Amino acid sequence: METPQVVEIKNMSFAYQARNVLKDVNLTVPQGDFATIVGPNGGGKTTLLKLLLGLLPPSSGTIKIFGTSPAKSRVKIGYMPQYSHLDMQFPVTVMDVALMGRLARCKWGRYSSRDRDAAATALEEVKMDTFKETHFNALSGGQKQRVLIARALCSEPELLLLDEPTSNIDQESEKDLFNILQRLNHRMTILLVSHDLGFTSQVVKSVICVNRQVVIHPTTTIDGTMIKDIYGGDLKMIRHDHRCCEMGHMHD
Amino acid sequence: MTTAAVKWGTCMTDLIQILTQPDFQFLRNALIVGILASISFGIIGTYVVTKRISYLAGAISHCAFGGIGAALYLNRTFGLTWLTPMMGAVASALAAAIITGLVSLYAKEREDTVIGAIWSVGMAAGLIFIDLTPGYFEISSFLFGDILLISSRDIVLVLILDAFIVTATLLFYNRLLAVCFDDEFATLRGIHAHVYYIFLLCLIALTIVLLVRIVGIVMVIALLTLPAAVAGKFTTRMWKMMLLSIFFCMSFNTTGLALGFFRGLSSGPSIIIIAGLSYLIVISIQKVKPMIKKRASFIQLQK
Q1: Which segment of A138-152, A202-216, B203-217 scores lowest on mean pLDDT?
Q2: Which residues of A touch B (CB under 8 A)?
Q3: What stretches pass through the bilayer (chain B) (predicted)?
């Protein structure tokens, strides 16, 4: 039996103010995949994510998520944004934030005890259940990210999208994070945007390179030298990546 | 210390005596409106402060003046006697709320420029309308508030507003919380975040207009934001912040009115000065406290 495709993008382009941000994108993500979206800054990673969420409409071509439009399948998508755009003084507790993931399910805008249980379970899953009553902004970067994952999880998604979950956190937290994600991958498809591939490649199943065009690599084809080639250093990373996506890589 | 306490005691008995006299109906009305209005102010002020849109609220309140002017003009020139300045203010404040909301959401303009434009154009329109209207008007009561103008009808209006705002908050608390905290995520959870945002701005507009009577157009923003700002220093949850800011708003209004009355000062500015001083004191204490603690532990270490 064939694995169903969670994401299907066909000949999709996206232009912003007459400038092509993404061009002729063809991409499929099978169910159960764990993929990272990598690429240089300004290459269109965040744009691709917003297109997948239906927050931006494509200029041409089609995007299908679970066989239908992104806006319609939103309820099945769990989304973890970067926490840096959130107000650092907002009066919410960890539990308040996690419960927001249940908004689509609760009736009349009130949370039931089932909603509370789901939020508590999700917090437990990311090991943040002891912080329920803590002010969200009193947490460290890694903890905030885990709470935002819990918020995405408690809507019981089938596809989890994460935007730069490894930015602004230390290595230890990053390791914890990937352990959690690896466990979650057993029951949902995961797509994450990342700026570094070095560590993620040990966990992820495929890599999606985005630099105006989109190219997929199964991780099995990525060996040590190639990673070093692409992400040898921060400055080189951008230049090499650019080249590799334009013509360097061989793929299916 | 004791003399101060005695003085305070006599003040309070004076106040109670005054409040029971029929001659001071206006003061009684002002106090009742001040206390009742605090409920709307505390709730809406919390949204304004946490969503960081006090400038938007400022534009809405100044735009209300345009409506006041227009209503006066239409009333006198075209004989529309049913059209009160209050109705004009409500209409223009709501229009300003919707326009600023749509601009901040959709138009890719510099938001602060648009807000500034609405702010002063609304004000200018009001002044021009008043110029065009025959007769002389004392506009300072609209700009700076005048408790002498508060009637028992205002009490009813404020009660209706309170009921409306409390109901809306109870119904939409969780959704508004999500929209204010992270509107993108709220959208992804199937909430019409933009609709809720505009709705919130309309609630802000209504609150501002009804409360202009007490502190006036120019100062209403301070009374909207300062109690919530003080409350925000003591709590980490939205609903607690609302309750606390209702309490602070009540205290500021009452002490301000009392101060104004006993010292013969304008009540609006008295309320604002008390609110401003309280905010200053609270943030100063918060800044100084850790320093003292640090110093104390340093001395302990030296011993």
Answers
A1: A202-216
A2: 53, 55, 74-75, 77, 79, 81, 85-87, 89-93, 96-97, 99-101, 103-104, 106, 108-111, 135, 138, 151, 155
A3: 30-49, 55-74, 86-107, 113-134, 155-176, 196-229, 241-262, 268-285
Q: What is the CATH number of the domain that holds A102?
A: 3.40.50.300
In a domain, A33, yes or no: no
Q: Is residue A226 in a domain?
A: no
Domain edges within chain B: 2-302
Question: Is B180 in Cβ contact with A100 (below 8 Å)?
Answer: no
- What are the Cα distances from residue A65, in Å, to A53, A62, A101, A159, A245? 9, 10, 20, 9, 25
* Among the partner residues B178, B190, B240, nearest to A75 by beta-carbon distance: B190
**How many folded domains does chain A comprise?**
1
Nearest CA-CA partner of B188 in A109, A52, A28: A52
Instruction: Give contacts of B172 with chain A, Cβ < 8 Å.
Output: 109
* Shortest Cα distance, chain B CAs vs residue A24, angstroms: 26
User: Pick from B120, B124, B123, B126: which is nearest to B70 by CA?
Assistant: B126
State whether residue A47 is helix, strand or coil.
helix
Mean pLDDT of B26-36: 88
Residue A12 lies in a domain: no
Domain range for residue A182? 76-190
- Residue A80 belongs to some domain of the structure: yes
Residue in A closest to B183 by C-alpha = A86
> CB under 8 Å, gap of 24 or more: what pairs does B257-265 form?
B257/B27, B257/B30, B257/B31, B257/B34, B257/B147, B258/B11, B258/B15, B260/B147, B261/B18, B261/B27, B262/B11, B262/B14
Q: Do A103 and B189 touch (CB under 8 A)?
A: yes
Q: CB distance from B262 to chain A under 8 Å?
A: no
Percent of chain A topping pLDDT 90: 26
pLDDT digits (tens, 9 = 90+) for B222-272: 999 999 999 999 998 999 999 999 999 999 999 998 998 888 888 888 999
Which secondary structure element, helix H or strand E, spans residue B295, and what is its range?
Answer: helix B267-302
CATH tag, B2-302: 1.10.3470.10
